[in-house]
Amino acid sequence: MRHAIAPLSLLLLAGAGPVQPDASLGKAEAACRPNEAGPALLVGITGLKDRKGLVRAELYPDNDSDFLADDAVLINAHKMFRRVDLVLPASGPVTLCLRVPGPGRYSLSVLHDRNRNLKWDKLSDGLGFGGNPKLGWSKPTAAAASVLVGAGPTRTQIVMTYLSGLKYRPLERK
């Protein structure tokens, strides 16, 4: 009788200890290349509080169980996950590009990581989602945060929101 041996990654996820975050997960597949014509999402980001830190865009399957799920879990399950980090330029427009496996609907999150610790700090960092849903105290649904990507580069605009009082909202412009 043959015994199947579970891959090491599954053993780690099964309780052998916490999986350490890997900042490179999802990046190799996500990086757009110059003059590439395939499906991609061009994300313009507006409403930034300042130009500190970086912005991190992450693309997920368009379903609630996978949206904002742990990146290592998604990748080990062979599910689509893409991530791009961009150090904020001192001025000018902020646009990043994510390659996608094919045309379709995906869920998008954007983090303005002001201190570059690669974690969400709810009191200082900004959030944005595909479709720019109004945010409450729970995460938006995958459908509310979704974007439709065509056969070539597709543009979307994300308005960043920050905690103000007891709500996340876009910054007021004076």
TrEMBL record:
Domain of life according to the entry: Bacteria
UniProt protein name: DUF2141 domain-containing protein
